[in-house]
């Protein structure tokens, strides 16, 4: 199997080529993490770079994202362990105003793989929805933002938790391309992680498990 088909397939938005290529690679015994970290994620980075160079526009980004999701859907069940007692409950969502969900979905998968029960709040998640999730008993609020313009919603959410008297009931973990440790410190989040696997590690660390 030539995994270049998967890489090119994401860039060209060829959903069929990506799904078939990923399936074939899995059947041949290629590890899900190799497919993810060596082909799918680099392909999406290339899409971002082409967007920055004005070679790609929003429609191209969108079809590339759909193609990537078709590959992720096949990998997910393999990354996620089943039948394990949850180590904690996480509510994860992309923050209000932000519709990017690929990174958030990856974090969600890695969290599930690390043994968390994950409540996926989807995209465009309001501070109130996160507050409600904490009321419902989650241990970690995990927020993703891909736009500099939506990052402030992370602070609004932390503030809303404080106002609701629930700040000590859950740890707040943040991430996404424009987010930094300094920003996490600035808004009073408990943790920051630069990528999906370290997010799962960090969540465990925050809960002391
Ligand atoms: Co958008 N977009 N986009 N986009 N898009 C970016 C983010 C951008 C950097 C492109 C660019 O200009 N170079 C730019 C943001 C600029 C900025 O604010 N600094 C941008 C823009 C401007 C926009 C629009 C405003 C474009 C427009 O309409 N004019 C618009 C906004 C829509 C909205 O959200 N309201 C928009 C729309 C879209 C699409 C819908 C077309 C599509 C999203 C489809 C989807 O997600 N279903 C899209 C895409 C695909 C991208 C790029 C190309 C790729 C994002 C991605 O999926 N990366 C992106 C450029 C880029 O990133 N180079 C871009 C792959 C993913 C695996 O990485 O999400 O970073 P990432 O997640 C990583 C880490 O960040 C981390 O772990 C993940 C895996 O390791 N992580 C966490 C993420 N969340 C975490 C949470 C954690 C911890 C770690 O803890 C809780």
What is the number of E strands?
A: 5
CA-based shape: globular
The strand order across the widest sheet is 2-1-3-4-5
Q: Spell out the helices and strands N to C.
A: HHHHEHEHEHEHEH
Secondary-structure-derived class:
alpha/beta
Low-confidence parts: none
The mean pLDDT is 91
Helix fraction by DSSP (H/I, runs of at least 4) = 55-70%
Enumerate the distinct ligands. Answer: CO-5-methoxybenzimidazolylcobamide
- Compute the CA-based radius of gyration: 17 Å
Q: Quickly count the helices.
A: 9
Description:
This protein has 209 residues and is of the alpha/beta class. 56% of the residues lie in helices and 13% in strands. It is globular and about 55 Å long. 43% of the residues are buried. The mean pLDDT is 91. CO-5-methoxybenzimidazolylcobamide binds next to helix 3, helix 4, helix 5, strand 3 and strand 4.
How do you describe this structure in short?
This protein has 209 residues and is α/β, with parallel strands linked by helices. It has helices at residues 4-12, 15-27, 32-52, 58-79, 102-113, 127-135, 152-163, 181-187, 196-207, and strands at residues 89-95, 117-125, 140-144, 171-175, 191-192. Helices cover 56% and strands 13% of the residues.
């Amino acid at each position: 199997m030539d995994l270049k088909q998967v890489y090119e397939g994401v860039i060209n938005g060829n959903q069929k080529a990506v799904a078939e290529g990923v399936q074939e690679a899995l059947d041949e015994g290629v590890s899900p993490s190799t497919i993810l970290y060596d082909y799918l994620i680099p392909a999406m980075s290339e899409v971002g770079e082409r967007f920055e160079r004005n070679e790609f526009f929003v429609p191209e980004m969108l079809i590339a994202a759909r193609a990537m999701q078709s590959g992720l859907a096949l990998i997910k069940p393999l990354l996620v362990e089943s039948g394990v007692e949850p180590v904690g409950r996480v509510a994860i969502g992309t923050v209000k105003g932000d519709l990017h969900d690929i990174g958030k979905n990856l974090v969600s998968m890695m969290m599930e793989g690390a043994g968390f029960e994950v409540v996926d709040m989807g995209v465009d998640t309001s501070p109130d929805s996160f507050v409600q999730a904490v009321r419902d008993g989650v241990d970690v609020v995990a927020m993703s933002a891909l736009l500099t313009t939506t990052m402030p919603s992370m602070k609004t959410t932390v503030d809303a938790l404080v106002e609701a008297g629930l700040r000590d009931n859950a740890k707040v973990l943040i991430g996404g391309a424009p987010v930094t440790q300094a920003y996490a410190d600035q808004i009073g989040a408990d943790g920051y992680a630069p990528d999906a696997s370290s997010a799962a590690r960090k969540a465990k660390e925050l809960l002391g498990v």
